[in-house]
Amino acid sequence: MSAALALGDDALVLSHRLGEWAGHAPVLEEDVALANIALDLLGQARVLLSLVGDEDELAYLREERAFRNLQLVEQPNGDFAHTIARQLYFSVYQHLLYERLAAGGGEFADLAAKAVKEVAYHRDHAEQWVLRLGDGTDESHRRMQAGLEALWRFTGEMFQPVEGLDDTGSGLDRQELERTWLAAVTGTVERATLTLPTGPRSGAWAAGAGRQGLHTEPFGRMLAEMQHLHRSHPGASW
Amino acid sequence: MSSSTDWPLWEVFVRSRRGLSHTHAGSLHAPDAEMALRNARDLYTRRSEGISIWVVPSTQITASSPDEKDSFFEPAGDKPYRHPTFYEIPDGVKHL
């Protein structure tokens, strides 16, 4: 069930990061949009984690090293452009992945088919904002480019094989997925008058580290905040 | 932080899945029509499927003036033949 854990943790962690925007987004309408996306992801996480065990225990009582999410989704929000860059990289990947899982007929086909409509909207939202920020003012262009650059090194991990996902008859072709992702992201970035980053797609950590439970420094603080209440009152029901 | 001068006001009209006409649902701020549609979807439709949304920049709407109320709206009340309200509606006529 490590694949359900990996996909579920991606959704859970990104949902928490987006939840941190509540009440802080640039405008009210965007506050609602980010909260909507966070709620979609949380719903996906609940389904996926329930396949593995008790969703609350998995979310609130696992140590950092037991989380299997991509390092990309645990990165702090930064400014709005930084958050949108993270959304672009992840939601294009998630959309392409879920489309393929839905069509593949494997064990995740049904839940992927349900989630793919939500994820298509997340992708559209991110692409719309990359276009506006990139092709906006000098300042927004600079910030959007900076966001794309800062997160680029976390994008390689998305195309590492996931145990139980790539080898259970899902028919997933990671290389094809990566090519399609790169073409889609390149198209959006260029339309937005931005430049595709040229640096390496994995950082000092080996690609795939998040899937092995190796995470970046900000993740521990995020988990401490997320898990604090449950750990303070173990066994409480709400 | 954007101000409302950067983000114009849009009026939102929504037709629900089984609704016949677009109804004014409210207003919102958005940088352009595309984003206004997306914001309207989040704010006013909760993503029910099969509905239609119109967004219109508020500046494009011309409203009737309250001062002209009398001549504009008050019908000639003593001419009942102008008010086709005497017809019986047969059973089975929908959408009337």
Automatic annotation (TrEMBL), chain A:
Family matches, as InterPro entries: Aromatic_CoA_ox/epox, Ferritin-like, Ferritin-like_SF, PaaA_PaaC, PaaC
GO BP, sorted A to Z: phenylacetate catabolic process
UniProt xrefs under Pfam families: PaaA_PaaC
GO cellular component: cytosol
Matches recorded under NCBIfam families: PA_CoA_Oxy3
Descriptive protein name: Phenylacetate-CoA oxygenase subunit PaaC
Protein species of origin: Streptomyces microflavus (Streptomyces lipmanii)
Gene: paaC
